Structure formats: C-alpha cells, structure tokens
C-alpha cells in the first residue's frame, strides 16, 4: 500500500498509485545512479516506479526494488512497477521475449504494467534506433492490433498484471478499442502532459473509455537537446505557477504535480536529486482551489517538449493529430 493510500482503480481491477517515480535519466548520469535514487525514492514513500527497456537501466532499478524488499522496507506487492515495450519489438512474436528480457534484467517474476512505449514500429534488431545511411529511422510495418494481442497473452501468462499504451493519439487508441475480439482494454495511455500541454481532449477521451491518463514530462523537461524542444520556456519558471506556489507555500513542481492528481491524472515525477525526490512526495499535503485549477488550465498552449521529431515521417507518428 501507498503510505497515503492514494491509488486509482484500473479498468482491469488492479490499482495504480497516483504518484509515480520516473527513472528515465539524462545521458550524463551514470547508470548506477538509478540504483541509488530508486532505493531512496522507495525509502521516502514512492511505491510506483516507472521504467522502460530503452532507458537501459532496468537492471539497476530492479536491484533497487529487490534490495528494498530484502531489507523489509516493502513487499513485492507494495510496489507497482511499469516497463515498456520498445519500438523494435512490436512484431507480435517479439513481444513476449522482450518482456521476458526485461524481467530477467530486473530479476522479477512479473511487472505490474507493461505498455507499448510508442506506436512507431522500427526495424527489429539490437539497435534501439535503427537508422539508414542518411540518419533516417528505419521503420517496420506492424499492425498495432497484432502487437496488442501479444500483450494480452503476456497478461494471461501472468508476466504482466496490467497492459496499456503510451504516446497513442485517440485514433490509435480507438483502433485497439474497436478491434474485433478485444480481450482487454488498455488500462492507461502514458503521454506528455503538463500545464503547457494539458491534453484536456485526450483526457476526456480516455476517461470516457475508463482509461487512465498517465503524465510524463509533468515538470516540463530536462533540457536534453536530442529529445527536447528547447525553444519552449521553462515550465517551472512560469509566473502563474510561481504565484500559486507562493500562496500555498509550496514549490512550483509540487503545484504542477498536484494539478494532475486533482484532474484525475496519474503523474510521474522524474528527478535524480534526493532533496527534490523527498519534496515531491509531499504532493498529498495540500490542495489547490478551483480558482487555482482554472488558472493553471489557462496556461495551456498545446506545446510539446518531447516531439520525437526523428519519427515524423512514420505513418504511425502520433503527434500530427490534434489529440
């Protein structure tokens, strides 16, 4: 159990803690640091850990979880662990082996949630970002409905308690929801979501289908130029957010995390700074007023930090749709 008991029910009956710890790291951070910060996050009360094969740190994150189980801090069932199926493994026959590889790296028997990381199939192989001689991504043509059927089998086999998607637009979600013979709906869609990109249309769509929206990039972004649109202002320096934070005697980061929780969004807080990790768990200690919520809603400008421009030419590139 989350110490604050703050969990929401997924459409398959499992529960997800509304605050998660994001483990994606900047390139300059040594992989071993994932071990330290994940252990620390569990010590201060995080029970939902979000990771992925493509982060290349599942071994360390798994080690952190196991060490906190071994020392009695938590039991395995207290932890909600998410992994993600990378784009080079979207062919149905590659799905289960990819999950089994993650489980082997983690030394865990199951993940709580396994999600399709991105709807863009890429050429299978060892390369995470297969490119041609012109530096263009080499796509693969895979029907995502077939990928989904393979995820359903992983759930049936007990390798994943719940299954979902990430970075899908509403049309891509609809394709799965309308699939003939659908056995399980996606429990979530994990997408970039923050006051500058509040995803209100996608959120309404997901709510109408009992799909939880999980927010990444909720604090804006680490300014990593390969991934991030650096022309956008720094979210946490926004004057409206700073004023609301000051009023509540909280940090702007806590205000944006709280904003998501109050609108029914599960939110990931990514930080490799212990002081901030400890601070982020305090999101349950205060409440924003309806006026605060409205003011934050007013900041939306439909701007992404994470545009994944490398995938723009791909037929399944998700961000060309309005939502």
From TrEMBL:
Chain positions of site Lowers pKa of active site Tyr: 84
Sites where the protein binds substrate: 117
Alphabetical list of SUPFAM superfamilies matching this protein: NAD(P)-linked oxidoreductase
Catalytic residues in the record: 55
Record keywords: NADP, Oxidoreductase
Domain NADP-dependent oxidoreductase: 19-300
Gene Ontology molecular functions: oxidoreductase activity
PANTHER family for this protein: ALDO/KETO REDUCTASE
Protein family membership: Belongs to the aldo/keto reductase family.
Name of the featured protein: Dihydrodiol dehydrogenase 3-like
Annotated gene: LOC104985992
